[in-house]
Amino acid sequence: MPPSADDVAAEVVFAWLEVLDDLTYYELFGIGGSATPDEVRAAFHLFCDTFHPDRHLGRPPEERSAVSSIFKRGTEGYLVLSDMGYRDRYDAQIAVAAGNVRVSGSPSRGSDARGTGRGMSGRPAARLEDAARTPSARPFARRAEELIQRGDLRQAKLQLVMANHKDPANDELEAALRDLEAKMASPDAK
Amino acid sequence: MAVVGIDLGTTNTVVASVQGGRVQVLADDEGRRLLPSVVSFHPNGDVLVGYPAKERRLVDAKNTVASVKRLIGRAWATDEIDRARKRFAFELKEGPGQGPLVVARGQEYTLPEISAFVLTRARQIAEKALGEPVDRAVITVPASFNELQRAATKVAGRVAGLDVLRIINEPTAAALAYGLGRSTKERIAVYDFGGGTFDCTLLDLSGNVFEVLATAGDTFLGGDDLDAAIAERMAEAFLRAHRYDPRTDPQAFERLRVVAETVKMELSTIERTSIKLRELGFGVGGTHLELGFGMTRDEIERLAAPLVDRSFAVCQEALQIAQLPVTAFDKVILVGGSTRIPLVRRRVEQFFGTPPLDRVNADEVVAIGAAIQAAALTEVARRRSIPPPPAPRARRSSMPPPKRDSDDEVTMATRIPSRIAEHERAIAPGATRPSSPAVRPPAAAHGAPQVPPAPPTMPTATARLPSATSTLPLPGLRPSSPPPEDVGATIPTPLLYQDVVRAAAAAEAAPQTPILVDVTPRALVVETVGGWCDVVVQRNAKIPCERTRAFTTSSDNQTVVQVRVAQGEDALFRNNTFLGAVELVGLRAAPRGDVTIRTRFEVDESGTLKVFATDLGTGREAHALLQLVGIAATDTVEAMQARHAAARVS
């Protein structure tokens, strides 16, 4: 017996739900990465017309809840894609996830740093600034480096903390901070 | 059984219904389409609603309740209730759970019960006009109404025996009434100046979808305020003439307010008016004192100017949220009785640079929109066909696909880990001091790996928050790179589902009611340690939506966690409207930071908030649901329904 039209309709809803987590917001709205704000809006309106829960009041509860999940992802995606700041960050995340772009502090250099021990003294100057991956962290990293060379460890630590805050989850910056703290705690630093 | 749309206004209520494809505003036996939102408790036990009640306001102000919409959903200890107690002649007292009660003829009524009398009368009018019972309704509220006010309005509907299909925003309803059947793309502004509230809502209309771009409002700005200002003028004139202040007598002042409303309305059409009030007080030896009072349009405009100025401050706020210049709007729709004031029309034209549309009836347009929405929600078998999904370019989640069951938790589960990673916070000592601030802000200075870089600040007030951490909803992918073997495992297809949708939409011949994509009026926040706020759902977020945050315990061996939720933009928690708390008990005793609590905020299509808290630390899924403060539980509503059904309403 061939599946009824209702079964097919349900299949499609669940098929969306299944790929939902794998779709980028662009794919969700069926637009390209270079879509203009107007194109994003038009695509979102089309998405609303298709997936808004009010368009599916006639479906059984299970399907309605699935449609609702899809729609909520859409409102989330629209928020991100229609705000330039969010969208830039999101684009960067997709690029990283897709493996198209390397993070600027390249992995090989990162593993070098870990491989050759954590002593900061052995590093060439301006190394710390290069380790910073975000523009806002860089000035702090540079300042920290200068202060370390001058021997003002306390001020250097403050700058490094800020650098870490501006560029979280950066192994190199964290390692540098730990090194500095260890140095400050050791008797010969006093 | 019929469905109706009800505009439950501060001063007037309007009911409309779609019959045979045509929408009509329903009139009472005497052909009146406005039902004054006034309830009077008559000595014979009857409950009068509408014009008869308005008349009682002059002789029995103490047992006549007006403008209840200004108070519904507000807690006892708020400025609004304080002001109302000074201003209104009827008696208010504190009830259980901070809910204010109206005392009339020895009976106590909750505010939703008072509104329910108005709704019941509206229902009677509709049933008579339609000749069939009415059991379901869409009720409108000001866009700026918070969760508590919406929930209380819903309770009012249920007490009146109505199944409330949806609570929708008045400006959105007005836009629906205006834009239905227009296929043009345009941006419109709705300037909604009612009896008690002002809202400015900006919309983008594109045929089938009406998107709310931004909304802002003031729930304590309306025509009532102008009435009060005029009444003050009259009282001063009377005081000068007779050395007696009618403000000391609530009954006398109530009369002044009723007359002030007439003066205001007359001055919208004529330039000058005068009134004479007899027996407003008694002089020496019991002589009657009377007041003769004249006013010109210039004078009333001077009184109205500060109120009108406030309305444009709100409009400016909405434009700022939408990040659009005022010139971006093609049309301005006026809604609400106060937009009849010539000064308002002039100023609207100046501000928006375009004359407002007056082909819509400012009093009825909201009820008409509500009726259209009510009809749309009850159409049989609404089921838009969905095209097949596109193939993802890469399989990003290594998680198993979501299970196909109705548990809505499941879909989130696949994404949660990444969210927790980015939003880990600490929840606080609930065990020792359950009412204490519940959540600790992240230790920003440590640059903990979980904390993402500060997001680009949104143009909303979230920028003022002390915690610089993210309010960015996470994209639907994991931050880590996918396993290499997954990349390109699926073939990207060039299919754009838009084409399929267009074809499907064309096939569904009957034109459909536009979809309303509305927003949350205010930010939804969680209390953090120190009494600050952490924004979970930002202001003007499109709904329905869902946001998830993870928190951790902040003290060792903490077994109780309380997540306190409020609505508003202030950085200090206590300055926002407290909605309620979710409490999770029986957590695993562990060092601080070891137990993770997930809170999920869900706002559905009618703007109703649900907050869930789940204990992830134990692997046990304990659920707790937000209890709104001052909102009656189901059994209380049933008791109210029973009492309400017994009342003789006319």
Write the layout of secondary structure elements.
The complex is a heterodimer of chains A (190) and B (650).
Chain A: H1 5-19, H2 25-29, H3 37-51, H4 61-81, H5 84-98, H6 107-115, H7 127-131, H8 138-150, H9 153-166, H10 171-185
Helix pairs in contact in A: 1-4, 3-4, 8-9, 9-10
Chain B: E1 2-8, E2 12-19, E3 22-25, E4 35-36, E5 38-41, E6 47-49, H1 51-59, E7 64-66, H2 79-87, E8 91-94, E9 100-104, E10 107-110, H3 111-130, E11 134-141, H4 147-159, E12 163-169, H5 170-179, E13 185-193, E14 198-206, E15 209-218, H6 223-242, H7 250-266, E16 272-282, E17 288-296, H8 297-322, E18 331-335, H9 342-352, H10 365-378, H11 409-413, H12 416-423, E19 424-427, E20 439-440, H13 497-507, E21 515-517, E22 524-528, E23 532-537, E24 545-553, E25 561-567, E26 577-584, E27 596-603, E28 609-615, E29 623-625, E30 627-628, H14 634-646
Parallel strand pairs in B: 1-11, 11-12, 13-18, 15-21, 19-24
Antiparallel strand pairs in B: 1-2, 2-3, 2-4, 5-6, 5-7, 8-9, 9-10, 13-14, 14-15, 16-17, 19-20, 22-23, 22-25, 24-27, 25-26, 26-30, 27-28, 28-29
Number of strands of chain A: 0
Low-confidence stretches of chain B: 397-510
The oligomeric status of these chains comes to heterodimer
User: CATH-wise, what's the superfamily of the largest domain in chain A?
Assistant: DnaJ domain
Measured by residues with Cβ under 8 Å of the partner chain's Cβ, the largest interface is:
A-B, 79 and 79 residues
Helix fraction of chain B by DSSP (H/I, runs of at least 4) = 25-40%
Beta-strand proportion of chain A: under 5%
> How many distinct folded domains of chain B?
3
Q: Class of the largest domain in chain A in CATH?
A: Mainly Alpha
Largest sheet of chain A: none
What string, H for helix and E for strand, traces the elements of chain A in order?
Answer: HHHHHHHHHH
Termini Cα gap of chain A: 85 Å
Number of helical segments of chain A? 10
Please state the average pLDDT score of chain A.
78
CATH topology term of the largest domain in chain A = Helix Hairpins
Number of strands of chain B: 30
Q: Note the gap between the termini of chain B.
A: 22 Å
Largest sheet of chain B: 6 strands, mixed
Provide the helix percentage of chain A: 55-70%
What best-fitting shape of chain B do the alpha-carbon axes yield? globular
Which CATH architecture of the largest domain in chain A? Orthogonal Bundle
